[in-house]
Amino acid sequence: MSESNDRERIKAAQGKTVDRAQTTRRFDVPVVVDEKKCVTGCRICIDSCPVDCLAVDPRTQKSHMAFDECWYCLACELDCPKDAITVKIPFLLR
Amino acid sequence: MNFKVTEMDADIVVVGGGSAGSTAAITAQQALPKGRVLLLEKAHIKRSGAIAIGMDGLNNAIIPGHATVEQYVKEITMANDGIVNQRAVLEYATNSYSMIQQLDEWGVKFQKTETGDFDVKKVHHKGSYVLPMPEGYDLKKILTRLLRRAGVNVVNRVMATRLLMDGPRVVGVLGFDTREGDFVVIRAKAVILCCGASGRLGLPASGYLYGTYENPANAGDGYSLAYHAGAELTGIECFQINPLIKDYNGPACAYVTGPLGGHTVNAKGHRFIESDYWSGHMMLEFHRELHSENGPVFLKLNHLAPETITEIERVLHKTERPSRGRFHESRGHNYQDDWIEMHISEIGLCSGHSASGVWVNERGETTAPGLYAAGDMACVPHNYLLGALTYGKICAQNALSYIREVGPVEADADQLEGEQRRLFGPLSRPNGIPHHQFEYKVRRLVNDYLQPPKSQHRMEAGLNHFMHALDELEEVGATSPHELMRVMEGHFIRDCAEMAARASLYRKESRWGLYHYRQDYPELDDQNWFLHVNLKKDEQGNMTTLTRPVEPYVVPLEQSELRGYHALRIPRPSASVATA
User: Fold this and answer.
1) Residues of B with CB under 8 A from a CB of A
2) Which positions ≥6 away from B530 have C-beta within 8 Å?
3) Could you report the predicted ipTM of this complex, rounded to two decimals?
4) Given this model, what pLDDT does residue B7 score?
5) What is the pTM of this model?
6) Which residues on neighbouring strands pair with residue B358, listed in sequence order?
């Protein structure tokens, strides 16, 4: 019994479910940013996105796909002056 | 809850900075050099609207020597089974060529022949109106440059959620900043809505919410804004359904590959439609073939010369949907060696392609004073890109005369408080239903119950779900202004689903091929239904249906011509030939 309680506690900690009764799900996202090429403070791709799914990642100060809402229109990729972005076709359509 | 309020005043506010909205704002500002023209855009004008990534051609160019205004009005009348406000179509047709000349001046590159003439192609069933624009990826950049040069006050990343009213008169826009979350109040003498299609209505067969044919930012915002302002909508039952590449949201045959010799074929490699032009009648034949023993349907190019195929790829993989080549690569097929499987799109509302939109006259006026509409959301059937640009200009010109005559703007404060409460409600429920789950459910139900073929029992069941979704919206929560944007789009999507169900239930006949094909009323019935079906919000706040007569034609058609689009299937060989 105690062993199984312990396992549940570990599961909650590992799954970051404490105080946050949500399921978390990992997505394969279409917009891939090469952080070595991406210029801090540029924001061109973020302006370009018609659905506003890109944002600055506060940890790295680089662009990343923040919301799973990509139309794979390539605006960000075409407008990036450093060729730092590759847009994949979303997995559901590949 | 108290939010920071940003207040602005303008002479004219344009909502939506796509093709129609940009042209409207440029036209208005050029005529009012010292006036205040404000262009509100939910995204960013450099890449917004239906043609965010450009467009590869004009589908409805009426160019002297290739087509006449009268021919075009006739063709659009027959493609719509007669249910058109011909004056509005005629106004477009009359101004179409001068708009092309203006685009030419602005630096838009059109395909020309060796003698310098516009290289017009025939795609429609009767006439020739397609003008390729192989470098059309520049169009949005050109419009953005013109907006800056004209000095239009562009406000990006602000979403309109309701129109500001003074009694029946529209006097501005309410909304919020989708980044910072401020409440935005804009007072204006006139409002021009250019918010695009209701393109996030049906769910793509892939189940991917943002895999829509239309730019997913076009969530039906304009349909809902106009409706809640008391304006009438029309032809909503005439859905938009397009032939697309299977699993990919790009079109395939008609406008680019058709004129270069591409074919739409069935699994046996046989062609089955007379004309690839996107009409409801063509879509009905497409749908029948798809679901017959000869399905699926394919785009066939591999009978063409390799250099022709390369030319097709150059256009298709660069403009409008440039990720197309990447999609084919991921599937391991190409135009040289393979037939490309096609399918039909999810349903949507869009007058650019069909005829579902806000009711407008030939001046771009809606039935709400002070409110104009242009582009995909305004009902001028089959208006496409050139219609959006042309009507953007027409709306601006008429709004300019209107604002010279109207009194000052007054709006009552209760409205502001009420909208602030409604709009920001979801932020008080951070643990509420997530917006994507709400949206998935509504759009899945749209597919289940509204996708043609339509029937009364199914659509009534759907309508019940959409009314229940109104209550569910009270449980949907948001944790950020970005999520709030998606929740408010959920409101628009639900409103459009209700409209689509009610208008389709009301028209008890079949018309426009697949767009309004009813299994319970399979015949076209001119005796009872040669009229417009309109929707509006009544005084109790309920959605009501009404009819308007089709005004006498300004370009008359013979009765036989009215059925000009009814024989789109290539006749099967007769039995004697088949057995010979």
Assistant:
1) 43-44, 46-48, 52-53, 156-157, 178-179, 206-212, 215-217, 247-248, 321-323, 326-327, 330-331, 482, 485-486
2) B82, B83, B550
3) 0.93
4) 96
5) 0.95
6) B233, B378
